[in-house]
Amino acid sequence: xxxxxxxxxxxxxxxxxxxxxxxxxxxxxxxxxxxxxxxxxxxxxxxxxxxxxxxxxxxxxxxxxxxxxxxxxxxxxxxxxxxxxxxxxxxxxxxxxxxxxxxxxxxxxxxxxxxxxxxxxxxxxxxxxxxxxxxxxxxxxxxxxxxxxxxxxxxxxxxxxxxxxxxxxxxxxxxxxxxxxxxxxxxxxxxxxxxxxxxxxxxxxxxxxxxxxxxxxxxxxxxxxxxxxxxxxxxxxxxxxxxxxxxxxxxxxxxxxxxxxxxxxxxxxxxxxxxxxxxxxxxxxxxxxxxxxxxxxxxxxxxxxxxxxxxxxxxxxxxxxxxxxxxxxxxxxxxxxxxxxxxxxxxxxxxxxxxxxxxxxxxxxxxxxxxxxxxxxxxxxxxxxxxxxxxxxxxxxx
Length: 398
What we know:
The chain has 398 residues and is an all-alpha fold. The protein is 72% helix and 2% strand. It is built from 21 helices and two strands. Strands 1-2 form a two-stranded antiparallel ribbon. β1 and β2 form a beta hairpin. α17 runs antiparallel to α18.
């Protein structure tokens, strides 16, 4: 009969909790780890529970036994920070390109506008296919070329293409964990949208800004959403309906963070009506993809945010994603589904959905906070960590 750990199942953040997590990832019981260190089983048990302080000697011994850096256990460093450090060289050229907006780029001979518009659309598709690194490598030169071109050919199409490239930069920065850079990209998008005289582009920018504030300052997020609606007042085109629908979905996410169930329902219903007005299909406008499936995904996402996991599980089981669903959206659904399955006690299903998300969109899944939350929950609730879970945790840097 396998040994059962006598420990507190809390998501604590102290050296003992990190020791417990790393021990489980190594697929060791407390007794097995105690046999590998010059300290008693009783002391290990108390340290993991938080009843005794882990000394530097204890942490060093455990780290040596687990073949990991002691900083992982002490909390002085973590693998997520290390991963982000490795991404800095990738995003540095994007940061530099965003600073060209009021300068004349040196020694740039931009390609024809039609070619650059196609390139902007291609990079947008790469991000939605979750090829983040490839898009990150190409977007700086596109921004530079379009910045140069708008200086000599300031047409609406050129400004729209530049706004598209800024939005792609924002998506990349946000997905890779650089929110400060994402904010700069959104400011540049506003600058280009104003020169394009495009209210839908300006409203999309407000939607994206609102999502940045949904966690910490939801009141500001709601104001930004309303500003987006104000920009579209009196607009009734198909394009405007798509953007209005997306604004309502953004508002539902903000309301969910505030645990305002009635507001979530009101915004989801408004978005659903707009999706129905668009013949129930998916309408692609300004790199948005809005329709009934997107509404259903946001409805489920709101349930997850409000920790209504039973309700979210019912919604997830009813969702049938069409083959045309964007890869990024499918992967996000799978990660949310994994969180829901984990929270409702279906560990095998949770891990299965994480593996599927990794297969569909490895870069997006690796850096998504929901992935880390689901894995951490599975590790803390498992008595014996399966090898597949250990491998997944190592892959995300836990």
